[in-house]
Amino acid sequence: MAPTQWRTKIKVSENMAPNMTFSVAYVKNNEWVFQNRGILVEQPRIQVSFKTDKEVYQPGETVKVQVQTQLGGKALAANVSVVWWMK
C-alpha cells in the first residue's frame, strides 16, 4: 500500500441491515472533502418448503400439506399464513 492509502476492517452486525454507509472525510487543497460508500448488509432469509402427501388429488379429496421453515439450514419456528385460490 502507498503512504496515502488506508485500510480498515468493519465488523458487520445485524443492526446494520439492510445497509450502512461508510464515510471518509479528508482535507484536500485546504478544503474538507467527504466521500460516502453504501454497503449492502445481507439480511437472513427464512426458507419455506411445502410438501403434499400426493402429487394429484381428485375433487372432494382433502389435501395434506407439510410446511417447513428453516434459517441457515436449521429448523425454525415461524408464523405462516396460507392462502389458496381456485382457477
Describe this structure in words.
- By secondary structure, the chain is mainly beta.
- It contains no helices and 5 strands.
- The strands form 2 sheets. Strands 3-4-5 form a 3-stranded antiparallel β-sheet, with no helix packed on it. Strands 1-2 form a two-stranded antiparallel sheet.
- It is rod-shaped, with a radius of gyration of 25 Å.
- It starts with 18 loop residues before the first strand and ends in a 12-residue tail after the last strand.
- The mean pLDDT is 88.
Which structural traits does this protein have?
three-stranded antiparallel β-sheet; 87 residues; 40% strand; mainly beta; 0% helix; two-stranded antiparallel ribbon; 5 strands
Given the C-alpha coordinates, what overall shape results? rod-shaped
How are the strands of the largest sheet arranged? Answer: 3-4-5
How many separate helices?
0
Query: Rg from C-alpha positions?
Result: 25 Å
Biggest sheet, open or closed, and with what strands and sense?
Answer: 3 strands, antiparallel
Alpha-beta classification: mainly beta
Mean pLDDT score: 88
Helix percentage:
under 10%
What secondary-structure arrangement, pairings included, does this model have?
Elements: E1 19-28, E2 31-40, E3 47-52, E4 65-71, E5 74-75
Antiparallel strand pairs: 1-2, 3-4, 4-5
Gist of the model:
The chain is an all-beta fold and 87 residues long. It has strands spanning 19-28, 31-40, 47-52, 65-71, 74-75. The mean pLDDT is 88.
